[in-house]
Amino acid sequence: KLFFTDYGNAAKVERCDMDGMNRTRIVDSKIEQPTALALDLINKFVYWVDIYLDSVEVVDYHGRKRHTIIKGRQIRHLCGLAVFENYLYTVNSDNLSILRINRYNGTDVQSLARLDNAKEIHVYQKRTQTTVRSHACEVDPYGMPGGCSHICLLSSNYKARTCRCRTGFILGSDGRSCK
Prior knowledge:
This protein is mainly β. It has two domains: about 1-125, Neuraminidase (6 Propeller); about 135-179, Laminin. The protein contains no helices and 13 strands. It has strands at about 1-5, 10-15, 25, 35-40, 45-50, 55-60, 65-70, 80-85, 85-90, 95-100, 110-115, 150-155, 160-165. The strands form four sheets. Strands 4-5-6-7 form a four-stranded antiparallel beta sheet, with no helix packed on it. Strands 8-9-10-11 form a four-stranded antiparallel beta sheet, with no helix packed on it. The radius of gyration is 19 Å and the shape is elongated.
């Protein structure tokens, strides 16, 4: 799945399949400007920062179990969000500090460091990566991902895929080759 935020005409947090199909709103009320988003892949939770409401909130992948982690002036100007173990990590764009927030109760907010011009944060650690299983976009014997001549996108599950073409090409009638 692909998870994303939108604060155009109607603010929301959404998800879709990697090929763009099955687009679903998971949050579309009591939300104003969702910016940063992070996933807990193990427990299947979506965290986001709303910079208008000065809040960090969470829901499960289906939009249920919503609650506020932390709210108020203490977390103004946040950008970027990452989850690791018991904490959320984010960047305060006002004073360029990296903050650590307890993701279960919003307490224990600590400033860890200051950086010049930081806007995003990521955690790279082996435990945050799920094990990859065999999937529909694996390279075939001819070196083509999922049998697609250009781009292979996972669809509704890891066994299904959709082929797409680079700009300037169109998908052939076989659904795999680009012309």
